Fold this protein.
Amino acid sequence: MATEIELETDGNVWKLLVAEGDTVEEGQMLFIMEVMKMEVPYEAPHAGVVKDLEIAEGDAVKEGDIAMVIS
């Protein structure tokens, strides 16, 4: 099962905590966004492997962008 991690708001990628090919556990922190000077963490919805990493630290991103896929 592949799951796209979709961004919920515009902002900047402050800290990327995984790399493409990493194995992650459900609930593991994937990255932190900076949104209006607030930190917004994104967690893995299920265990899997990070695929198609589309973001990097410092990127300005838009709501609805796909950050990565976990399969």
